[in-house]
Specification:
single chain; mainly alpha; flat
Length: 36
Amino acid sequence: MALHSKSITFKDQNSKIIKATATYPDEFKKLINALK
């Protein structure tokens, strides 16, 4: 998974949140860490 990518597609319940956050790399990383 490339955290810098803006076109990552997740097929889980968090997909909308992740797509909405993916344009903000720092926030995206925070979200990924929160989901671990």
